[in-house]
Specification:
Elements: H1 12-28, H2 35-48, E1 52-56, H3 59-69, E2 76-80, H4 85-93, E3 97-101, H5 112-118, E4 123-129, H6 139-148, E5 152-156, E6 164-165, E7 168-169, E8 176-180, E9 193-197, H7 200-209, H8 233-244, H9 246-263, E10 270-271, E11 278-279, E12 285-288, H10 295-306, H11 323-327, H12 340-348, E13 349-352, H13 360-374
Length: 375
Amino acid sequence: MEVPILKIPFDCDDVRIIGEELSRMLLSGSLAMGDKSRLFEEKFADFVGSRWALGCQSGTQALELIARGLNLSGYSVIVPGLTFMATAMAFIAAGAKIAVADVDPELFQLAPNEAARMTRADTRAIVLVHLGGFISPKWRDLKTLAQEHCAYLIEDSAHAHGAIDNGAKAGTLGTAAAFSFYPTKVLTTAEGGMVTTDDPELHRKMLILRQHGQENPGSNIHEHFGLNFRPSEIHALLGLRQMEKADWILNQRRQAAEVYDQLLVNSPLTRLLPPENQKPAYYKYITLLPDKVSRSHLKERLKKEFQVSLAGEVYTIPLNKQPFLRNNPHVLGTPLTPLPQSEKAAESQICLPIWPGLTKEAQEYVVDCVLKCLN
């Protein structure tokens, strides 16, 4: 059996409908920020439960739009050590300085005590990254910490489309949230991003920022600094098809996670189990290897001998060890320090394949092959 890293959830019906709509779109000449983009924003806001959703070209742009809209330039922003580099880069691009804090050992989410240790007089934002599609059960503590320092809680929800913690949905927990629609994500538009917020002033500012600083789009009058963050109609078309099956996609991922949970009971792999009353999005199914096991050797054997491809980790290099941050201290709000939990997670995790349509038979094969290699 061959088990790929992922299969993107577009089927023959999607291909037919998208093809027909794309033909009409190309003939109409409306290719950027038109009716499809507006409808996608409306449907995504309804899906998340936010007042507004605002589309752009990537999840990184979504974070940068938030940072620029909140005027974070010159201020310190706390980010977790275990995240993709784009989380930090987006705020740096907007002129903010980065303070990197360690994560908790349970779900590898930003630890409130570590975030508190990194706060300074100029701290204006705390970034909660929903790693792997899990929501930190301590997010309310982080929100309280942000409020105590007159700072914003910002969600990097790139992994967390549809994740819910005790009725609270990813994308509605703080001042604003950024989503990514890269091909590997829970919902995909090939490329693309979205900001969700309930803040009317922030929404107004971001509308201006994404259209070259024009208060009246198309006027050719630029009252503010702004860049091109506009979404495309083609990507929005893909997004609308994904919204039609979003619930099915999430159910498929959650059912697959339950199968892995059962298969890995009493195994050498350490599972990451969600807190009670949480429904993760399961962008990744993360497990921890036993001590002294070579991840690279394991992945090589699985691919070569069993045709099993493991998904990419989240992530193999924590931010405190990223060369760009180490070599450019001027972008830091506080000096880099060792991050024991982030470093341990980065070194020892593997992510098992998880995607809509993955069969229980394939999951049993994956687990059997992993255990054979470990033994």
